[in-house]
Structures are given as C-alpha cells and as structure tokens.
Design goal:
Distance between the termini: 32 Å
Strand content: 5-15%
Helix content: 55-70%
Shape: flat
Order of helices and strands: HHHEHHEEHH
Number of strands: 3
Strand order of the largest sheet: 1-3-2
Radius of gyration: 20 Å
C-alpha cells in the first residue's frame, strides 16, 4: 500500500519507507487479531487471550499471576479471572508460593500444553500452506526481520516513554 507523498506534518520531511513499514506492521497486527483460534483447533477451543497466557507459561515456566499480567500488559485482576477459568478447564494449575503463601504460582498443565500444541500445529500447517511459495530460508529471514522490527518498535516506545516521563508530558 503506497501512502500519499505529502508530509504528514508541514515542514517535516517524510520518511516513506519507515512509514510504509509501520503500515505493514499495523496490517499484520490487524490480521493476527482477526485470527480465531477456535476455528484453527476446534477441539481446543482456546480464545486468543487464553492462548497468550498459556504461551507465556510454556515459554517462561511457573510464575505469579502478577508477572503474567505485566507480560500481557493488562491489570492483574483481568489475569486473575482468566486464570480461574483456565484452572477450572484443567489448562493451568496453581499452588501457593513457598516464599509467600499469600501469592499463588501458576504453571501450564499437561492438558493446556496439549491444547496449545494442537493450536500451533494447526496454525503452522495452514500458514505453511498459504506461504507455499516461500522456502524455509525465506520464512526464517522474514521471521528474523519481523523480530528485529518488533525489537526496534519496543525500543522506540521505551525511548518515547522515558522522554515523556522526564519532560512531564502526558
């Protein structure tokens, strides 16, 4: 998608390639948000938010609900309700934290891992089919580029937050 060539802000030079990259990232985010995991692996029936929690537990292991909330960028109360439902479905397990019995530790249950594995197996199968014209090297190069872009966007966001916090702008 080619954006208009005029600068968005008068007097500020337009950086078309960087803005096109941002448009591409925005399109990718919208496409990912439209994915309905329940259609990819109907036997699992995982919602996107549930899959996100399970994926973090798979990647990072047992942790407190507050840690999960921070990683997901949501309030701890949101994750607490979500974890209650996931525990009731047998997808996660909770136990008291030995260091602080007032806090619980959450881990991925075998059933949760199985559902997550089924979801990602189905998803990668479908993705591989629609990207059949790309070989493994091209897919890996695209993945590397997307990771670099994600890291760069995160760094820009951190820099903007620091600048905003130090100047008091909100």
């Amino acid at each position: 998608m080619q954006l208009a060539q005029e600068p968005l802000v008068p007097g500020v030079e337009r950086d078309t390639p960087a803005q096109e990259l941002l448009e591409g990232v925005s399109s990718l985010i919208r496409a990912v948000r439209c994915v309905d995991h329940r259609h990819l692996a109907p036997e699992g029936g995982l919602k996107r938010a549930d899959a996100s929690v399970l994926k973090i537990l798979l990647r990072d292991g047992e942790q407190r609900g507050g840690e999960l909330a921070a990683k997901l960028g949501v309030d701890a109360s949101v994750v607490s309700r979500q974890l209650s439902a996931l525990e009731a479905d047998g997808l996660v397990s909770r136990r008291p934290d030995p260091a602080d019995a007032r806090v619980g530790l959450v881990s991925l249950a075998p059933r949760g891992k199985a559902q997550l594995d089924a979801l990602y197996a189905s998803y990668t199968h479908h993705l591989r089919a629609v990207l059949a014209d790309l070989d493994d090297d091209a897919l890996l190069a695209a993945a590397d580029t997307m990771q670099r872009i994600a890291h760069a966007i995160t760094e820009v966001n951190r820099g903007v937050r620091r600048t905003t916090q130090s100047t008091g702008d909100r």
